[in-house]
Automatic annotation (TrEMBL), chain B:
Pfam families: MIOS_a-sol, MIOS_WD40, zinc_ribbon_16. One of its GO terms (cellular component) is lysosomal membrane. It comes from Cyclopterus lumpus (Lumpsucker). The lineage of its organism: Eukaryota, Metazoa, Chordata, Craniata, Vertebrata. InterPro entries: MIOS/Sea4, MIOS_a-sol, WD40/YVTN_repeat-like_dom_sf, WD40_repeat_dom_sf, WD40_rpt, Zn_ribbon_mio. The keyword Cell membrane does not apply. This is Missing oocyte, meiosis regulator, homolog (Drosophila). It is found in: Lysosome membrane.
Length: 346, 871
């Protein structure tokens, strides 16, 4: 398996709901006018709390500082796992489940905070630039690590790895504790929320983006209006949450939305898997999670991997969101409930 | 719908007059001649000669991303369309009554995860196989090979039941969801092509790598990391040559050496959109960039394949502009030479365009001219322009070389006769060489060995005496002063007026002129020697001679009326009327007679009079003050004009080289320049880079004409005059046993060795018996035919060669022959006497050594050439 450190330097930002109006111009430019910006990595996710924007430094320049803008101070680097086709695993599962054991668990063990971004095309694992040496040191046994430089994949030099290990040893103060130990001292278990809406993960030919522009603008920026009406139906408000994610990364578009939003788009333009699967969401966190705690993704992905259940995972500024197949939601719910009992039992 | 779909063109694989344009829909066109009977009102002109008619439109398949035309003859107009959602749909244009076609049209091939279909490729042999290249989707495969004949699978119907989010209703009877092969997991595929060298191999431009998939073993792939993954395409003429591109850069790959591109073409400022090999022309690649109205062509015809690391590939790059507007796409015509149809980026404006072939032109080493264009070769010859060709210096030099011009080193003066004897300049330059000869004999070693010219001779003039002689045959004292000195006398000799030896009488020269019927000149020379009676006598002789000019009598009469009376009517009339005389010598005679003493410009600057005659005149009648000035002036004039007659003045000095330079600049005659300057002093003149350049060029010319014998003779001649020009021995023969050079070790000579003279190949017969290595005494190799050791002279009957016969054959004339040389093949190392080898290979192709199958003679490229000079 190969691990690619992609050639993007990313910032994670939140825009408050009320402040969105100040950023519509740069956001529309970043979404629709690909040729007018040098931004190569852009993701916008609307949650009930705020808008989370993940974008590279070129894109970041477009956003003016403002009181409505919260910027996480670190530079994040996206990692991408590439299995070389001859994947030995018999698992049919997709998404973070595939990398739960090989990437997410070891990083959690090394106290590396990760920010996940699943798209229609792939899963990006964002790590802080300052943690890169530890990441490389941790993963170099399992993976061939490549650094993408100017569009070419360059194998990481041995010396880099050696330095990384040295650094890791220093920072980790001796050998890291084995996995079994760490599970017993697992940090706080966050509360989860499982809303009722069904989600789909879709894509779009970038050439047809202009033809859905009005719908997209409507869904992204004017969703609060009609939602006021929706709030009059309290049952829906309780059971469903607003979640819409758009990303345009290296020319590929990915959309995550619930079926209600999906119905607003022309039927033949968005595409997804031929099986047309639907997803349910597990939102992790009662209080905003922050960026420093590690092991949150591992907490969810580990048991899913044990049960071989596919999952997508989208981190936002405040909370994390896992998407699991609709047909597996009961199993997932049970599993999460058991997990909550376990620490109490031990 | 605002769709950025850029147009593309596809030619029908089987109908050379049909093509499809695809943008937002598919349009089938037929191309035909303008004004033909088929031309309808709706025909669109594509060029001055051709027009296109729209036959059919198909707009059933929206969101087209790529189109590929079914490669087989039937069904004839079946197209595969790749869509933005990754589905591949079979469709057709126009009506087809073919049942196979009806079954196939409408069939859809749906990938598990929808994403853009980037490329399609039909297998050229197994036409049921259609490869589709898709964008990346997680761990899914991006290269799907569909079998278009496969029936829908039952699982597909099960799957369709599960679909709750179906965007398009899947009609399960026409939908295929199971590909025959799935390749390129976890990757994106941007371009595809089947390899022509094996239809089981598929070349794919993946995300940052080019991969070759083998359908016989799909778990393995050959790949190379590169950014150039767009538009992979195989050269139809060289099946191992592939082009691909990335942004503005095209990479050319050799599949046998797949680690890196064998070459990359110069980067273009805008991203490329299409790259296509010309199907009708070897090694011609056309490329198109975005927002451009030109197509750039790269001619790799002369690029050696495979291209080694060392060789600098030669690519000829040029651009063509088929139309004014920006080009959307182009397609080469499948069979019509260098022809393409171009479609504009907007409004579907089409142009039929033929790329004009480069014309290459070549002169042969003789005078013929060939030019080639496309598949045509033209031999250019001038009609009835014999004269023009004869005037051409290359032809002249070749003819002169053939008639051994310059090769008479004993009687140098004869060379101008060898050159054809018509050129007065050549004559005078060889006169000079003749004179030089004489000078050397006169002067012994007192002066410089090399002729330094009259200019230098008169400079050193001293002890000049002045005399006033009587007119011969008259007792009247002449008032014309004449000057004498040893140097002036030598100059007169060099001018040919007086012969060698102590005799200074001009009479011998006059007689020779009379003999050559140069009456006027003879008369002038006689007159300048103050013998007016002799002059009249000569003119008279000229008038009465066979075919003589009677007018000479009139001139003689005019001459006889000479008077030195300053104000006579005779003087007055002669000085004005003389200008009407056509013959320059007659003219200068009267100029001399009517001139004031010491003011002879009428004679000295009469350019039609031979330089040597004017110089001789000057030496007789100009004072020590006037003479060097006149000679200097004349020398400069000659140098400027490149007139070889001036060599008389400059000699073979630096001045002479300057003069020769302007002569060569004017005529290109390096032949005369080479022969002439060889006689110059090795120190200055021969070392002059100009001289070396003429000599080398002349040698190259002789080589080009295959006048190898002439060149050898020239080199020998040159070696005698300039020993430093002899090349050092470069090849030595070493003994098989001790490894020492057999020519070097036995002779006391240094490297500039005697070569094979000791081995019976040349030179003296007494040393011809060395048949063993002088170093280790081991025998030298044997001739494969006569089995004699090297060093033994060739025998006519090699099998029964007896010692007596051998003695008989060691005569010098035999030994000097090339037949005795020892030669061998550099490949199989067998060999023998050159004569034996030559006669063997006259009837055989293989090496004479039994069991050796080496085709020695065919390996020797120069051995099969024949010299074209027969000496």
């Amino acid at each position: 398996m190969d691990l690619h450190i992609l050639d993007h330097r990313l910032r994670v930002i939140s825009i408050s709901k009320s402040g969105l109006v100040h950023f519509t111009h740069p956001l529309i430019k970043l979404i629709f006018l690909r040729n007018r910006t040098r931004c190569k990595f852009f993701s916008l996710t609307e949650t009930p709390e705020n808008y989370t924007v993940v974008l590279d430094e070129e894109g970041f320049k477009e956003l003016q500082p403002s009181e409505h803008l919260k910027v996480e101070s670190s530079i994040w680097l996206p990692l991408n796992v590439v299995s070389n086709g001859n994947a030995s695993s018999s698992s049919q599962a997709v998404g973070v489940t595939k990398i739960a054991k090989s990437v997410i668990a070891p990083l959690a063990q090394q106290h590396v905070s990760v920010f996940m971004l699943s798209t229609y095309q792939t899963d990006f694992i964002l790590v802080r630039e300052k943690d890169l040496s530890v990441v490389v040191g941790t993963l170099e046994e399992e993976f061939n690590i490549y650094e993408e430089v100017g569009g070419e994949s360059v194998p990481m030099l041995c010396q880099d790895v050696a330095n990384a290990l040295q650094k890791n040893a220093k920072e980790g103060r001796g050998a890291p504790p084995p996995l079994s130990v760490s599970t017993t001292t697992r940090p706080t278990v966050h509360p989860v929320l499982i809303p009722q809406n069904q989600f789909c993960v879709m894509s779009l030919d970038p050439d047809t983006l202009p033809s859905i522009a009005t719908t997209l603008i409507d869904v992204l920026f004017y969703s609060n209006g009609p939602k006021e009406d929706a709030q009059s139906s309290p049952s829906r408000d309780l059971d469903c949450i607003k979640f819409f994610s758009f990303s345009l990364i290296d020319g590929y578009i990915s959309l995550v939305m619930d079926t209600e939003a999906q119905r607003q788009f022309p039927a033949d333009l968005l595409f997804t898997s031929s099986s047309g699967e639907l997803w349910r969401m597990v939102r992790i966190g009662g209080q905003p999670l922050g960026f420093d705690e590690c092991g949150i993704v591992a907490q969810i992905s580990q048991p899913l991997a044990d049960s071989d259940i596919s999952a997508y995972y989208i981190s936002t500024f405040s909370f994390d969101h896992a998407l699991v197949p609709e047909e597996d939601i009961v199993r997932v719910t049970d599993m999460l409930q058991n997990q909550r009992k376990e620490p109490a039992a031990s | 719908i605002m769709s950025g779909s850029k147009p593309d063109i596809l030619w029908s694989p089987h109908h050379p007059d049909r093509y499809v344009i695809c943008d937002s829909e598919l349009g089938l066109y037929r191309i035909g001649p303008t004004g033909g009977s088929e031309t309808k009102a709706g025909a669109l002109p594509l060029s001055e000669e051709t027009a296109a008619t729209l036959l059919a439109i198909n707009s059933d398949t929206p969101y087209m991303k790529c189109v590929a035309w079914y490669p087989k003859h039937e069904p004839e107009c079946l197209l595969a369309v790749g869509q933005a959602n990754g589905r591949v749909v079979l469709t057709s244009l126009g009506q087809s009554h073919n049942t196979a076609c009806k079954e196939l049209v409408g069939k859809e091939f749906v990938p598990k995860h929808a994403r853009q279909c980037n490329t399609l490729a039909w297998n050229p042999v197994d036409s049921n196989l259609l490869a589709a290249g898709l964008d990346k989707h997680r761990a899914d495969f991006s290269v799907l090979i569909w079998d278009i004949s496969s029936k829908f699978s039952p699982e597909a119907s099960v799957a369709s039941e599960k679909i709750r989010l179906s965007s398009v209703d899947l009609d399960s009877s026409t939908v295929v969801t199971k590909p025959l092969y799935e390749l390129g997991q976890n990757d994106a595929c941007l371009s595809l092509c089947w390899l022509l060298r094996d239809p089981k191999l598929l070349l794919a431009g993946m995300h940052r790598n080019l991969a070759i998939f083998d359908l016989r073993n799909t778990s393995q792939k050959t790949f190379v990391n590169t950014k150039a993954v767009q538009g992979v395409t195989v050269d139809p003429h060289v099946h191992d040559r592939v082009a691909s591109f990335f942004e503005g850069q095209v990479a050319i790959w050799d599949l046998r050496k797949f680690e890196k591109p064998v070459l990359t073409l110069t980067e273009q400022p805008k991203p490329l959109t299409k790259v296509a090999w010309c199907p009708t022309r070897n090694g011609l690649l056309a490329t198109l960039t975005r927002d451009s109205n030109i197509i750039r062509l790269y001619d790799m015809q002369h690029t050696p394949t495979p291209i080694g690391d060392e060789t600098e590939p030669t690519i000829i790059e040029r651009s063509v502009q088929p139309c004014e507007s920006q080009i959307g796409s182009f397609a080469w015509h499948p069979s019509s030479q260098n022809r393409m149809v171009v479609v504009s980026a907007a409004n579907r404006v089409m142009t039929d365009f033929t790329v004009f072939e480069r014309i290459s032109l070549a002169w042969s080493s003789t005078t013929s001219l060939m030019w080639a264009c496309g598949r045509h070769l033209y031999d250019c010859s001038e009609d009835g322009a014999e004269g023009a060709i004869e005037k051409d210096i290359a032809t002249k030099m070749r003819q002169r070389a053939q008639s051994r011009y310059g090769h008479d080193t004993v009687q140098v003066w004869r060379n101008h006769l060898l050159a054809g004897g018509k050129d007065s300049q050549l004559k005078s330059s060889h006169m000079k060489q003749c004179a030089e000869d004489m000078e050397l004999k006169l002067q012994g070693n007192k002066q410089a060995v090399v002729y330094s010219g009259i200019k230098n001779i008169v400079k050193t003039s001293s002890g000049t005496t002045e005399s006033r002689r009587c007119w011969s045959g008259s007792d009247r004292q002449s008032d014309v002063p004449r000057y004498h000195s040893e140097e002036r006398c030598l100059a007169l000799r060099l001018c040919g007026w007086i012969s060698r030896g102590p005799d200074i009488d001009v009479e011998i020269f006059l007689r020779s002129l009379e003999h050559e019927r140069e009456w006027e000149r003879a008369a002038a020379v006689a007159l300048f020697n103050l013998d007016i009676r002799r002059a009249i006598q000569i003119l008279n002789k000229g008038a009465t001679a066979d075919k003589g000019d009677l007018n000479l009598n009139v001139v003689a009469m005019a001459l006889s009326g000479y008077t030195d009376e300053k104000s006579s009517l005779w003087r007055e009339m002669c000085s004005s009327l003389r200008l009407q005389l056509k013959n320059p010598y007659l003219c200068v005679m009267f100029a001399f007679l009517t001139s004031e003493t010491g003011a002879y410009d009428g004679v000295l600057f009469e350019s039609s009079v031979a330089v040597r005659d004017r110089v001789a005149f000057a030496c007789m009648f100009l004072s020590d003050a006037q003479l060097p000035r006149y000679i200097d002036k004349l020398t400069n004039e000659m140098k400027e004009a490149g007139n070889l007659e001036g060599i008389l003045l400059t000699g073979l000095t630096k001045d002479g080289v300057d003069l020769m330079e302007s002569y060569v600049d004017r005529t290109g005659d390096v032949q005369t320049a080479s022969f002439c300057m060889l006689k110059g002093s090795p120190g200055d003149v021969l070392k002059d880079p100009r001289v070396q350049c003429w000599i080398e060029n002349y040698r190259n010319l002789l080589d080009a004409w295959r006048f190898w014998h002439k060149r050898a003779e020239f080199d020998i001649h040159r070696g005698k005059l300039d020993p430093s020009s002899k090349p050092l021995a470069q090849v030595f023969v070493s003994c098989n046993f001790c490894g020492k050079s057999i020519s070097y070790s036995c002779s006391a000579m240094p490297h500039q060795g005697r070569g094979f003279s000791q081995y019976g190949v040349s030179g003296s017969p007494t040393k011809s018996k060395v048949t063993s290595c002088p170093g280790c005494r081991k025998p030298l190799p044997r001739c494969a035919l006569c089995l004699m050791n090297m060093g033994t002279p060739v025998s006519n009957c090699p099998v029964t060669g007896k010692s007596e016969e051998k003695v008989d054959l060691t005569r010098e004339n035999k030994l000097a022959q090339f037949n005795n040389w020892f030669t061998w093949c550099h490949n199989c190392r067998h060999g023998g006497h050159a004569g034996h080898m030559l006669s063997w290979f006259r009837d055989h192709t293989e090496c004479p050594v039994s069991a050796c199958t080496c085709k020695c003679m065919q390996l020797d490229t120069t051995g099969n050439l024949v010299p074209s000079d027969s000496s």
